[in-house]
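Risk register update: the risk of archive-format incompatibility is retired. Evidence:
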Amino acid sequence: MPSSHVDAREDGSAERPEVAAARELAEEIRIRDVSITAGQILPVATDDIVGDSCRLGSDAHQWHSFLVVLDTQIEPEDVTVIAEGYRPELLTLEKALTENLTFPVRYVIERHADSLTR
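Archived output:
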């Protein structure tokens, strides 16, 4: 699950969450023969998650979760890690919940599983 902070802009405003989602996908993974458009990035939920600490010192974050709907089936060998990516793995929701997930990823999956299976 690519993730990041929403970037601040020079004028003091914040990057829109859906723009940050598209940016993170482009920075972390590449899917062979697939171009992801803005129309394929669908909002799922926005959650304030307390207990989600990070290297920048915060102990709470607002998570904006999105679902990327692809037109084609992909296989693990179609996914390449780039730049900031780390060990991508394709998992069903059921399988993901048996894995050692980060606190916020587990939080989102457990609370929004129905919205993640569109």
